[in-house]
Automatic annotation (TrEMBL):
GO terms for biological process: alanyl-tRNA aminoacylation. This is Alanyl-tRNA synthetase. GO terms for molecular function: alanine-tRNA ligase activity; aminoacyl-tRNA deacylase activity; nucleotide binding. Coiled coil: none annotated. It comes from the Bacteria. InterPro entries: Ala-tRNA_ligase (IPR050058), Thr/Ala-tRNA-synth_IIc_edit (IPR018163), Transl_B-barrel_sf (IPR009000). Keywords: Aminoacyl-tRNA synthetase, Ligase.
Length: 249
């Protein structure tokens, strides 16, 4: 299995690229030498988009990583890197592709933008929650980021109260209003080990984000119990702004 160079790590707003088909998998779909598409990971669902050849086109609805090398560096999650990336197309469309063929890959930028909003939002909500419980990062047991909403599941002996959630949300919305800049950068020796940073807060993260916090818009939050010691905090971004011009092809 050949690894796929994931262009979005260094060029996060690239919406299209040319690529060569490296593998055609009956279930996983089409793997390529490079891609602009984000493969599901870290709780964030994948991009969707189109694969285009000289005489055909196919919609992809899911993007998944295969197996590569397990990253083992200090203070970083053990993730799979240098993997192939598969673009899932229908069984009928699979027959339109050949190994070695040149294709173009386009992502759905509106969906990507929504994922960037939800993902940036999850970091800023976490910064708000950290003001209440400074070690909250270690209590995360689940994370889901979709174009419409996001949620974090925590294992906590002492759950968040309604007042604490409101206090965290107010801080989160203040940071968003102040439109702090945010950036991503790679580990000095591992180019697929990425970090996200705003102000003096840094998280290990290979997801997709906005270049600043303002476009997340005012965040709505809610919480619910998932049983003993487990609590879910959900959030949505009804006031997010979509800037088409952010993306380049
Ligand atoms: Zn992130």
């Amino acid at each position: 299995m050949k690894k796929t160079h994931r262009l979005h790590l260094q060029q996060p707003y690239l919406s299209a690229c040319e690529a060569i088909v490296t593998e055609i998998h009956p279930e996983k779909g089409i793997a390529t030498d490079v891609t602009v598409a984000f493969a599901e990971g870290g709780g964030q669902i994948s991009d969707a988009g189109m694969l285009i050849t000289d005489d055909a086109q196919a919609v992809f609805t899911d993007v998944q990583k295969g197996y590569g090398r397990l990253l083992l560096i200090k203070d970083f999650p053990s993730i799979q890197i240098e993997t192939p990336v598969y673009h899932k197309v229908s069984q009928e469309d699979l027959g339109k592709f050949k190994i070695g063929q040149s294709i173009k890959i386009f992502i759905d930028i509106e969906r990507r933008n929504r994922l960037c909003v939800s993902h940036t939002g999850i970091h800023v909500v976490l910064m708000g929650l950290e003001r209440i419980k400074p070690d909250i990062y270690r209590s995360i047991r689940g994370c889901h980021i979709s174009p419409e909403k996001a949620r974090l599941d925590f294992m906590l002996e002492d759950k968040f109260t309604d007042e604490q959630i409101i206090e965290a949300r107010e801080y989160t919305n203040q940071l968003i209003k102040e439109n702090w800049e945010a950036k991503t950068f790679a580990h000095p020796t591992e180019p697929e080990a990425m970090y996200w940073q705003t102000g003096d807060t840094t998280y290990c993260c290979g997801g997709t984000h906005l270049p600043s916090l303002g476009d997340v818009g005012e965040v709505m939050t809610s919480k619910k119990s998932l049983g003993t010691n487990m609590q879910r905090v959900s959030f949505s971004f009804p006031n997010a702004i979509f800037r088409k011009e952010l993306f380049v092809s």
